[in-house]
Design brief:
single chain; about 500 residues; Aldehyde Dehydrogenase, Chain A, domain 1; Aldehyde Dehydrogenase, Chain A, domain 2; 6-stranded mixed sheet; 17 helices; binds nicotinamide-adenine-dinucleotide
């Protein structure tokens, strides 16, 4: 039975149905059944959102009222706190988050990230004076003025929707931009709530707009190609990221891209808790649907057989402690959709065809319910050139690759189109740091170090993206630099 409130568009300060009156069903990943209804925005609605955001940027003091913005963003944050139960419900029902996972990236950590943005905001530099300089016989004073870039199109995915929506919307608002949030078709409710609470927080009309629809492309592509939108902040797949760069080129759009990953965790042979390091790489959190998950495990060949035994035991002990919507301990639920399930299952089939050994899992689990359940799965005897080692599966599938020595581990980790994250474990921290410095990714965890938090930047090298989100850098992504020089 559908039980989520209807997800409405928010355009120019008004909660709205689509102009066409059309809606679509939000399909719950746990059941494969509708859990709510969402407005199905068409071109008319997206156009109205662009007009509203443009006007709010060009014709109000939003872009220069730094203190007012901070105050409203704080108020907005309080309202989200009050609606935490709803956020949890949305994470569980729309995105398929398990109860034990909402504390992490889904809700609590996302709201903590918002607090971090508020904390770093006073460090944003709005003006800077360079030393005076002589030119053509007179002296010149030179200032840099940092100004918001303008209208932002924020296009987000379904996997951790609140986290990504906050990452973009809050930073853009603090920077002084106006925003059109375009959440993924599967998770419109987690976008709609930004509209629902915007008026109560007191935002001027047009500063925040939210549009979504069943068509995954229409609204996003309108934002990407429209000259009135100044910047696209996108999180999603690398394929769509490339398309956005191409399409955005026509209007020389500024693009910020957070894309996919195939991050490697390297466990060196001297890791003090070798068994624990190997076992905890089990890819189960949110059914592996995280961009920065460590989905390639690299272990020394000298301990490869031991690692296999450790993993076999770990997966067997994990058993069936996943996939129950009501169990607060579970951190793994279904994958998002039928389509995603088919995609992941096709990779599992491919792994066997490529000659890897399926150590555990590999089956769809209809006994868990009518939704999209796939067992925690691990492949061993994997070589780094296999497609299952190179392509982002975005499901609960770990691949385990042997290496000869540190150089070989670094080579394997770096032989990837992606460059988002990774990890190194060793009893010798200096050695681990030496390896970490040579990994070509936006973040690396050493001996379990946590490299994701709202006060530090996050982003990717290579095909994992361009630019940084979160922290001071995350706000500065939305600023332009203007130089004003005054002849003294
Ligand atoms: P996706 O790329 O299919 O869609 C992302 C968003 O883009 C959705 O809102 C979608 O409607 C929209 N979109 C699709 N086609 C578009 C187009 N041509 N123009 C404009 N917008 C378009 O990704 P997804 O399936 O929703 O999410 C999974 C992917 O996101 C994975 O690859 C994952 O790695 C990535 N991801 C990356 C990060 C990160 O920070 N690097 C974080 C979360 C997810």
């Amino acid at each position: 039975m559908p039980n989520l409130p209807d997800a409405k568009l928010f355009i120019d300060g008004e909660l709205r149905d689509a102009a066409s009156g059309k809606t679509y069903d939000i399909i719950g990943p746990w059941t494969g059944q509708p859990v709510g209804k969402a407005a199905d925005a068409g071109a008319v609605d997206v156009e109205a959102a662009i007009v509203a955001a443009r006007r709010a940027f060009d014709e109000t003091d939003w872009s220069t009222a730094h203190d007012k913005r901070l105050e409203l963003v704080k108020k907005y944050r309080e309202l989200f706190e009050r609606h935490k139960d709803r956020l949890v419900q949305l994470a569980v029902q729309e995105a398929g988050a398990a109860q034990g996972a909402v504390q992490r990236a889904h809700v609590h950590m996302a709201l903590d990230g918002w607090d971090d943005y508020i904390r770093v905001f006073p460090q944003v530099k709005w003006e800077h004076e360079y030393p005076k300089r002589e030119a053509f016989g007179s002296m010149h004073r030179r200032f840099a003025v940092y100004e918001p870039v303008g209208v932002v199109g924020a296009i987000t995915p379904w996997n951790v929707p609140l986290y990504v929506n906050i990452g973009k919307v809050v930073a853009a608002l603090l920077a002084g931009c106006t925003v059109i949030l375009k959440p993924a078709p599967n998770t419109p409710g987690m976008g709609a709530i930004f509209g629902e609470l915007a008026n109560e927080a007191g935002f001027p009309k047009g500063v925040i707009n939210v549009v979504f629809g069943q068509d995954p492309v229409l609204a996003g592509e309108m934002l990407v190609t429209d000259p009135r939108v100044d910047l696209i902040s996108f999180t999603g797949s690398t394929g769509v990221g490339k398309r956005i760069m191409e399409q955005g080129a026509k209007t020389l759009k500024r693009v910020f891209l957070e894309l996919g990953g195939k991050s490697a965790k390297i466990v060196l042979e001297d890791a003090p808790n070798f068994a624990q390091e190997v076992a905890q790489t089990m890819l189960v959190f949110h059914a592996g649907q995280g961009c920065a998950v460590q989905s390639r495990l690299l272990v020394p060949r000298s301990r490869y057989e031991e690692a296999k035994q450790i993993l076999k035991h770990a997966y067997q002990s994990y058993g069936d402690s996943w996939g129950d919507q009501n169990d607060p301990q579970h951190i793994m639920g279904p994958v998002i959709s039928q389509r995603q399930m088919e995609r992941v299952m096709s990779y599992i089939e491919l792994g066997s065809q490529e000659g890897a050994t399926l150590l555990h899992g590999g089956q769809a689990r209809p006994d868990k319910g009518g939704g999209y359940f796939i067992e925690p799965t691990v492949f061993v005897d994997v070589t780094n050139d296999m497609r299952i080692a190179q392509e982002e599966i975005f499901g609960p599938v770990l691949v385990v690759i042997p290496f000869e020595d540190d150089e070989d581990a670094i080579r394997i980790a770096n032989e990837s189109a992606y460059g988002l994250s990774g990890g190194v474990s060793s009893g010798d921290q200096e050695r681990a740091m030496r390896v970490a410095r040579r990994i070509r990714t936006g973040s690396v965890s050493v001996n379990g170090g946590m490299c994701i938090a709202g006060d530090i930047p996050f982003g990717g090298y290579k095909a994992s993206g361009i630019g940084r989100e979160w922290g001071l850098e995350g706000i500065e992504e939305f600023l332009e630099t203007k130089i004003i020089a005054v002849a003294a």
